[in-house]
Amino acid sequence: MKQILYILFIFFYSSVYSQEWRDSLAVARDAYSKKEYAKALKYYRSAQSKAPEGVNLSKEMGQSAYKNLQYEDAEKIYQEQAVSESNPVEKAKAYHNLGNSLMQQKKYDDAIDAYKKSLRNDTANDKTRHNLSEAMRLKKLQQEQEEKQQQEQDQKENKDKNQQQNQDSQGQGKQQNKNQGEQQESNQGKNQQSSQKGGNNSQQQNGSSKLQDKAVDKKLDDLMKQEAETKRRMGGGSNSNTSSRSGKEW
Known about the structure:
- The chain has seven helices and no strands.
- It is an all-alpha fold.
- Helix content is 90%, strand content 0%.
- It is rod-shaped, with a radius of gyration of 62 Å.
- The N and C termini lie far apart (217 Å).
């Protein structure tokens, strides 16, 4: 009796669980048809988690993520699908869609690799071949832009470096001019001091010379006065003697 109840419970539970994933799948597909891609992705994931073994909704989940601009999520979904898929045609489609998701993220190297893997499984797919060519073109363009940006960056750095060197050179020149100016001012000050000192010495010498001249003049005046006094005295004595003699003769 217990075994019968257990079997009935399992059957009932399986039926309910099966109905839930089918309901989720129906809601997801309805949302996708209405372009409600975020809702569709949510219910696709719910349906996948409840789906029986062997049911793979990766393709529909990837499409919903891609349409909703969730390119990283789409990349992961398509990567898992491509690895797990055994059918070459479906594997080629998974790699093709993976390449598209990578292209949207500008991962051109990875996109090129994905498209090549897709073509290995389906060599006749012209659309994949076209996308591969476009990925290679965009990669080259990206490299050229990066090289141009690098050149501009190098030019800017060189320009800044030259400007800095010029500023340093100008600063050194100003410092040298300042030092030269200070040295000239110092030399001028020394020359002025020497000139003033020389002038003072000259004045002192002139003053000493004048004092000596005055002393000489005073001595000459004294000598002349003495000589005049002597002559006066001698002259006076001579007249007296003459008169005396004249008196005796007469």
